[in-house]
Amino acid sequence: MNIYAQLKDGEIVTLFSSPQLEENCPGVQELQSDDPRVVAFVEERQIKGLIED
Fold first, then answer.
1. Suppose 45 and one of 18, 29, 37, 51 were both cysteines; which one would form an S-S bond, judging by CB atoms 3.0 to 4.6 Å apart?
2. Torsion angle of alpha carbons 8, 28, 1, 35, nearest 10°?
3. For the whole model, what pTM was predicted?
4. What is the domain count for the chain?
5. What pLDDT, in 10s, does the model give residues 5-33?
């Protein structure tokens, strides 16, 4: 599954389930859901209770 991640200085700042317009969300890249950066981003937020399973 593809994920669209907004990156700033090489770090994910937010995730999207669909493509975004560059003028609205600069720095969005298409990544695979098993990309280590995506996994780490989601796991960190699950631990903090910001995302439910």
1. 51
2. -30
3. 0.78
4. 1
5. 999 998 999 999 999 999 999 999 999 99
